[in-house]
Automatic annotation (TrEMBL):
Record-given protein name: Delta-aminolevulinic acid dehydratase
Pathway(s) served: Porphyrin-containing compound metabolism; protoporphyrin-IX biosynthesis; coproporphyrinogen-III from 5-aminolevulinate: step 1/4
Highest taxon listed in the record's lineage: Bacteria
Catalytic activity: 2 5-aminolevulinate = porphobilinogen + 2 H2O + H(+)
Record function comment: Catalyzes an early step in the biosynthesis of tetrapyrroles. Binds two molecules of 5-aminolevulinate per subunit, each at a distinct site, and catalyzes their condensation to form porphobilinogen.
Binding site for Mg(2+): 232
Residues holding Zn(2+): 119, 121, 129
EC nos: 4.2.1.24
Record-stated family: Belongs to the ALAD family.
Keywords: Heme biosynthesis, Lyase, Magnesium, Metal-binding, Porphyrin biosynthesis, Zinc
Cofactor(s) this protein cannot do without: Zn(2+)
Annotated source species: Halanaerobium praevalens (strain ATCC 33744 / DSM 2228 / GSL)
GO cellular component terms given for this protein: cytosol
Length: 323
């Protein structure tokens, strides 16, 4: 007698489905990006990223307190400076906005993991992620500036540095600089496979970092390439990265899975602004259920192999998971 195979037996109740669930999300999986600005009493919602804000230091403290209350234990800081120049020099000043935020948060929340995005795009008057001369990004000159920023972040209290610029050799330069200045314990989360993506639009509004001319295709990766991502990851690991990252996440789940299958280091994925904004916009129209779609997206990112998910839904997702 031919017996019917019945995999549905393991789907008969919510309790049973939870018991055999292969991929489980937790608030401890999430890192929340935050945008800090100069001033006081500033909490300005970013129009293209509802639920996310430009925060002055006093409001940043309140935001972090609420994040920790729902179980978020790590944040990634992005700073919007008062002034910009061709070199991006405000990025490594002792009184820079990120440096001020680090001092504050380290004192107020010693158990919070402080990750800083390391790039020049918010700080340069041309909006590129490196030193721009004669219309070209000068890779090796940029490394010097990146190292200055990394050192200033470490001195201000960062626990982890996350270089997002995609310059060749930047991980080695930053690692050497940190080690030589007795910051050997500071870890590096490398944006190893960062693609030249159209999904970054809302972030560039939030960070005021859109390039004034041209695009970033000479340093960020071509979305058509997969093997190249593994080459980039190989180099970052060789140069001293402690965590590797794929960015964006949703259209690059195949890259996340390849990275997870090929490397033993912790793997982060950045669920970027455009992925977030599309769902928000559709939910506002009543076309989709934001909670269900967001949790499905985050589950797919973890299922693909990410250990860490950087997401603008971090606090909302943490709340949803308690329900």
């Amino acid at each position: 007698m031919n017996l019917i195979k019945r995999p549905r037996r393991l789907r008969t109740s919510q309790s049973l489905r939870e018991l055999v669930k292969e991929t489980k999300l937790s608030a401890s999986d999430f890192v929340k990006p935050l945008f800090v600005v100069n001033g006081e009493n500033i909490r300005e919602e970013i129009p293209s990223m509802p639920g996310n804000y430009h925060l002055s230091l006093d409001e940043l403290e309140k935001e972090v307190k609420s994040l920790m209350a729902v179980g978020i234990k790590a944040i990634m800081l992005f700073g919007l400076p008062k002034t910009k120049d061709a070199e991006g020099s405000s990025a490594w000043q002792e009184d820079g906005i990120v440096q001020q935020a680090l001092h504050l948060l380290k004192e107020k929340f010693p158990d919070l993991l402080l990750i800083t995005d390391l790039c020049l795009c918010q700080y340069t008057d041309h909006g590129h992620c490196g030193v721009l001369k004669e219309g070209k990004i000068k890779n090796d000159e940029t490394l010097t500036n990146l190292a200055k920023i990394a050192l200033s972040h470490a001195e201000a209290g960062a626990d982890m540095i996350a270089p997002s610029d995609m310059m060749d050799g930047r991980i080695a330069k930053i690692r050497n600089t940190l080690d030589q200045n007795d910051f050997k314990e500071i870890s590096i989360m490398a944006y190893s496979a960062k693609y030249q993506s159209a999904f970054y639009g809302p972030f560039r509004d939030a960070a005021h970092s859109a390039p004034g001319q041209g695009d970033r295709s000479t340093y960020q990766m071509d979305p058509a390439n997969s093997d190249e991502a593994l080459r980039e990851i190989d180099l970052d690991i060789e140069e001293g990265a402690d965590i590797i990252m794929v960015k964006p996440a949703l259209s690059y789940l195949d890259i996340i899975q390849r990275a997870a299958d090929n490397y033993e280091l912790p793997l982060a994925a950045y669920n970027v602004s455009g992925e977030y904004a599309m769902v928000k916009a559709a939910a506002e129209k009543g076309w989709i259920d934001e909670k269900k779609v967001a949790l499905e997206i985050l589950t797919s990112i973890k299922r693909a192999g990410a250990n860490i998910i950087i997401t603008y839904w971090a606090d909302q997702a943490a709340e949803w998971l308690k329900e």
